[in-house]
Amino acid sequence: MSSTRLVDTTSTTTTTKKKMKCISCKEEYGSSDAGTCKECYEEASETEEELKQEIEELKSKVAFLRFPSPVDYNRSSSSSSSSCFTDVFLVASDDHDRDKGAPFVPAHKTVLASRSPVFKAMLENEMEESRSGTIRISDVSYDALRNFVQYLYTAEVSLDEQMACDLLVLAEKYEVKYLKSHCEKFLMSKLNAENAFMCFAFSSQHYAKNLHETSLSLIVENMDKLTKQEEYQELVEKDPRLIVGIYEAYLAKQVNTAAAKD
Fold this sequence. Notes:
With 262 residues, the chain is mostly helical.
């Protein structure tokens, strides 16, 4: 009688733990989750918390050092303005003398001089503006002047396309480079086929290099369509020199395109 041998075959499963590479230190670590190892994660969390604390400290310092903007006071009342110790008044050229009741923008000489080298020279050199305590700003609206002074105190301003153009002109005139850059970036964000020629002409007049190059590039890329616009004909009549510049850029693009094909 043959005996049947029973063999118990129990399979042994070997589980290999998947190794991942940390994107920070590039070392392998045992985890099924992609990303960073525990050490790098904890270090990044500590760094993030430190940065948050530094940001809060900087915000507190800025709040402490920040001048209150005098344009937030009653702009037509000299008694209200004196409560924030202003010592100079800015008047738009289109407005009448402040003595006749026209609106004016109060400010501090120290702030104006610290924000603008033009104001600094004006107020330090015993010019009429320094002696009289009144600075007349030509070719500007009251709203633009008020926003300009507001920015000098707060580095903040609410823009639309017209205000951005007005403030860029003021920023260029008084050498407030941060405001000029801010306005230029805003206008670039609003650039389109409808305002390309206006932006190109404006940037050429006021040395806004980035806006100039971006608007020119848009025009060159869409020459066939854009040259049919009324704005193109207006520019031909007002400043043909700019039209020459446009066609020089267009021809250069054609030459480069042809050379690339060869």
